[in-house]
Amino acid sequence: MEKSLARYIWKNTRLQQLWILAVVAASMVPYFLSFDLPKQIVNGPIQGDGFEGPGARQTFMHIAYDIPLIGHVEFFQGLQLNRFQMLMALSLVFLALVVLNGLFKFYINTYKGRLGERMLRRIRFELIDRVLRFPPIHFKRVKSAEIATMIKDEVEPMGGFTGDAFVSPALLGGQAITALAFIIVQNFWLGMIAAGIVGVQAIVIPRMRKRLLDLGRQRQLTARELSGRVGEIVDGIGTIHGNDTSNLERADIASRLGRIFSIRYDLYQWKFLVKFINNFLAQVTPFLFYAIGGYLALQGRLDIGQLVAVISAYKDLPGPLKELIDWDQMRQDVQVKYQQVYEQFNVEPLIDSRIQELATAPVGALTGAFVVTNLSLSDDSGARLVDHVSVEIKPNETVAIVGPNGSGAEAFAEALGRMVWPDSGRITIDGRDLLDMPESITGRRISYASSDTFFFHGTLASNLLYGLKHAPMTDPVYDEREALEYKWHSAEAEKAGNPTLDLNSDWVDYKAAGASGPEDILKAIRPVLDAVLISQDILDLALRSTVNTDVHVALGDHVVALRASLRDRLRDEGLDTIVVPFDFDAYNAQATVGENLLFGTMKRPLMTNRRLAAHPYFQQLFRETGLSTDLYDMGLEIAENAVELFHDLPPDHPFFQQLTFMTADDIPTYQALLQKLQSRRFEDATPEERSAIIRLSFAYIEPRHRFGLLTNELMDKIVSARKQFHEHIPADLAELIERYDAERFTPSASLMDNVLFGRIAYQQADASDRIRGIMGELFDALDLYDDVLSIGLEFDVGSGGKRLTMVQRQKLNLARALLKRSDYFIFNRPLSALDQRVQDQITRNIIEGLHEEGHRPAIIWVLSNARLAEMFDRILLFDRGGLAEAGNYPELSEKNGMFKELLS
Fold first, then answer.
1. Which Pfam families does this chain map to (predicted)?
2. Alpha-carbon distance 291 to 300, whole Å?
3. What pLDDT score was predicted for residue 374?
4. Is the peptide bond prior to 730 cis by the omega test (within 30 degrees of 0)?
5. How far apart are CA 832 and CA 659, in angstroms?
6. At how many degrees (to 10) do helices 304-315 and 167-186 cross?
7. Tell me: the pLDDT tens digits for 556-593?
8. Which residues pair with 448 in a beta bridge?
9. Contact (CB, 8 A) for 81 and 57
C-alpha cells in the first residue's frame, strides 16, 4: 500500500486532477472580473464619471488587443451607450458573471464529488481485496467488527477528501489570492492589512488545530475498539449468559463510553475555542477597513468606488480562507486515518494476487501425490503442533489419521487443507508447492471440512452450492434498459479499479457437481444429503414452509392426489384415526377453537389475529351469535384451571410445554386479572379484559388440554357461526382469508397442512414422525420429492447459519465439501457434534458413496473413532506432534503399539 494518502490519490486520479485544475484556473478569470465590476458600476453610471455632459455616451464591450508580430487587432468596436444604458449593461454583465461563476462551482463540485466516490469505491475494494489475501494466522489476531468498521466508516472521509485533495487548495487558494491581489491593486495599505490578518490566520489556526487532530485520532481509536467489543459481546452472548457476566460487560461498555465522552467533550471545547479565535480575526479586518478605508476616503486618497470594491472583495476572502484552513485540517485528519488503515492492512506476507486470479475454464484433475516433507507447525504461542513429519499420500488412496486430542492430527489436516501455513518444510503436489498453487485448483480439486462451520446469510441452497461458485458460467439476459444500466455500472467499476464481474450471472459450476444445469442439480444434491443424513431435516423444513405455487407448480397440481393417497395409505395401515380431516359441517376436535371458527388461514402479515378480532364484521358476528359471552366464560374457566394447576410450578417445568394458550410469565398476570373479574359479568369487563380472556379460548384443544370445556352444544354453535362468517364475509376480509377447500391448494398454509388437510390426533404416540415418514414415501412415489426438497433448500439459515442446529451445520458443511467432487477430500473431525453412532454411519456412507462408478478420490480423514480406520487403506497415527505409527489396519491392530491401545 502507498504510505501517503496524497501519493495514493495522485497515482490513481492524476489525469482527472489535471483536468479539474485546468477548469479551476479558467474559473479565476470571471472570478476576478466580478470583483472589478462593482467599482466600474459605482464610479461610472452611478457617480457619473465619464458622463459629465448632457447626452454623454461611453463605449461598452470594446474588444481590441496588441498582439506581438501582428500589431493592434480590434475584434469588436463596442456599443455607444448613455448613462442609464451603461448601468443596465454593466449590471447584466455582473449577473452573467454571477451565473458563470456559479456554473463553474457547480461543475467543479460535481466533478470532484464523483471523483471522490470513485476513489472511496476503489479504496474500499482494495482493502477488502487485501482482507481476502491476509495470511490465515492474521485472522486470529484481528476482530472482524474492527475491520468492518474501518472499511465502512473510517475510510469514508477519504472519499470526500479525494476530490478536494488538489482542487480545493487550487480553487480556494486561487480565490483568496485573487481577492487579496485585487485589494492590493485598489489600495496598497488596505491590502497589507488584509494580508497581515490572513498570515496570522494561516499560521496560528493550523498550529492550534494540531490538538484537535490528536483528539480526533483518539476518538477514532476508542470508537473502533468499542465496535470490536460490541462484536465480541454479540458473538459471545451464550458465554456471557452462561457465566452471569452481563454486568461485567455493562461496566466495561460504560467505562469505554465514558472515555469516548471525555475525548469528545475535550474535542468540542478546543474546536469552538479555535472557531472563536478564527471568527474574531475574520471580523477584525472589516473593522479596520471601515475605519482606515473611511479615513482615506475622507482624505480623498481613496474614492468611494474603490472602498466599496475593496469591502466587496474582502467579503469573499474569509470564506475561501476559512475553507482552506478547514481543508488543511481535513488533510491532516484524513492522513491520520489513512495511516491507521495503512498500519492495519499493510500485512506481510499477503497471498499473491496471482493465486486468486479468475479461472473460467475447467480445471484438470490432480493426478500427483500429496508429498509432505519435513513439515513443522506451531501455534501463536510458539508451541510446536507438528514436528518434522514426512509422508506421501497417493491419489485414490484412503488414509485415516488417528490420535488423541493435541496429538497434531488436526493441525496436520489443516496444513493439507491450506488452513495454516508451515513454519518449515513443504507440502507439494506434482512437485508444486501447495501454497503456490492457484486457488482455482486447490479450491476446486481439494475439499476441506472440519467441525468449525460458517454459512453466509442466505438460503440452504445458496450455502450448499457455495463451493461451486468459482466464476460466472453464463451471462444473464438483459433487456435494452437493463443492458444500458449494466454497461454504465461496468464503466464506473472499471474507472474505480473494481472488477467488472457480473453478480447476476449464474456462478454455479453445475458440471463440477455432476449436473448439466439448474434443472437437474437436485439429482446431484440428493445423494449427498442422504449420505450425511440431513435429507429428513430439510424435508421437515419444507413441510413447515409455505409454498409458492407459481414456482412449484407440480405440488399445487398434485396436492389433492396427495391427500387422497395419504388417506388410502393410512387406511391400509390401520392408521385412519391418526388424522382428523377438516369438514366444513363438523367440528374438528384436534384443532383449536380459533381454527374451527375461522376454517381457513390468514394471509400474513396483511391479516393477523389482532386485526381480525378488531374487524367490525367479526365483532358483529360474535354479538349476533352470542359467542362473545360463551367464549368469555370458557376463557375464564381456562384461566382458573391453569392458574390453579400451575401457579406453584417453576417456570421451566415441562408441564408448561402443554400450555399453548399461556406461558409461565402469564400466570401472575391472569391471577391478578381473575381476582379483578370476580363476580363481574361479560358486560362489566373492559374491552381489553374481554380480549385477554377470550384469547385463551381461541387456543384451546380439548384432547390436548382436557379441561372438559367443549360441549356438543358449544361445538355446534361454533360450526354454525363459521358458516355464517363465510356466507356473508365482506370482500376486504375474503381477500385476506383463504377458506379450507378439499379440492384445491391453500397457498397461505404450510405444505404439511395442505397435504394433511386436517389435524394429527394428539392421543397417537409418535404420530407426527409416522406421518412425515409416510409423506416422504408418497412424494417419492409421485416423483415430487425433488420439488419438496427444493422448498426446504429455500430455508433462510440466518446470520452465520445460526437458525440451524450445530448438528445440522456440521452435516451441511460436510455436504458442501462432498458436492464439489474433488480429487482430494480432507475431513478434519467434521462431525464432532454428532453422537458416535451417527458419525460412524455417515463415515461409511461417504466412503462407499465416493468410491463408486469408477470415481475414486483420495480421502484423508481425521477420525474420532479409531475402529473406523478399518475402512481405510492406510492409517497414520499421530502422537505429540510426530508420526508415531503408519500402516494398514491388520498390521497396526495386531501390533502391540499405540494404535492397539486406542482400539481397546
1. ABC_membrane, ABC_tran
2. 14
3. 94
4. no
5. 35
6. 160
7. 788 888 888 888 888 888 888 888 999 999 999 989 88
8. 826
9. yes
- Give CA–CA dist 536/544, Å, rounded: 12
- Parallel, antiparallel or unpaired: strands 858-862 and 824-828: parallel
Contact 897, 402 (CB under 8 A): no
DSSP 783: T
Element (H, E) at 10: helix 5-41
* Alpha helix segments (H runs only) across 515-663: 521-531, 535-543, 553-572, 593-598, 609-614, 616-625, 627-646
Antiparallel, parallel or unpaired: β 858-862 and 398-402: parallel
Sign for the CA dihedral angle at 884, 889, 893, 899 comes to positive
Q: Report DSSP state, residue 365.
A: P
- The string of DSSP codes covering 787-801 is HHHHHHTT-B--GGG
Long-range contacts of 283-286 (CB under 8 A, 24+ apart): 284/197, 285/193, 285/194, 285/197, 285/314, 285/318, 286/311, 286/314
Determine phi and psi for 711, rounding to 5 degrees: -90, 165
Give the cell for residue 531.
449420505
C-alpha distances out from residue 666 to 634, 656, 693, Å: 18, 11, 12
Which residues have C-beta within 8 Å of that of residue 412, sequence separation ≥ 6? Answer: 375, 377, 386, 389, 401, 862, 878
3-state secondary structure of 499: coil
What is the DSSP annotation of 301-355? SS-HHHHHHHHHHHHTSHHHHHHHHHHHHHHHHHHHHHHHHHHHH--SSPPPGGG
Is the Cβ–Cβ distance between 57 and 82 less than 8 Å? yes
3 state SS for 848-873: HHHCECCECCEEEEECCCHHHHHHCC
CA nearest to 79, candidates 51, 64, 60, 93? 60
User: pLDDT at position 295, please?
Assistant: 67
Torsion sign across C-alpha atoms 35, 40, 43, 45: negative
Q: Which residues of the chain have pLDDT under 70?
A: 65, 182-183, 186-187, 189-191, 193-194, 197-203, 205-206, 209, 242-243, 278-279, 281-319, 321-322, 651-660, 679-680, 765, 852-854, 904
Q: Is the dihedral of CA 661, 667, 673, 676 positive or negative?
A: positive
Which cell is 253 given? 461498555
Query: What is the distance between the alpha carbons of residues 736 and 748, in angstroms, rounded to a whole number?
Result: 10
- Residues forming a β-bridge with 79: 60
Sign of CA dihedral 350, 353, 355, 356: positive
Longest Cα–Cα distance in the chain: 131
DSSP code per residue over 163-206: HHTTHHHHHHHHHHHHHHHHHHHH-HHHHHHHHHHHHHHHHHHH
- Helices 83-132 and 156-164, interaxial angle, to 10°? 140
Sign (positive/negative) of CA torsion 417, 420, 426, 431?
A: positive
Helix 318-345 / helix 156-164 crossing angle, nearest 10 deg: 130
Specify the amino acid at residue 417: G
Q: Please state, in angstroms and rounded to a whole number, the distance separating the CA atoms of residues 797 and 816.
A: 14
User: For residue 599, is it left (φ>0), alpha (ψ between -120 and 50) or beta?
Assistant: left
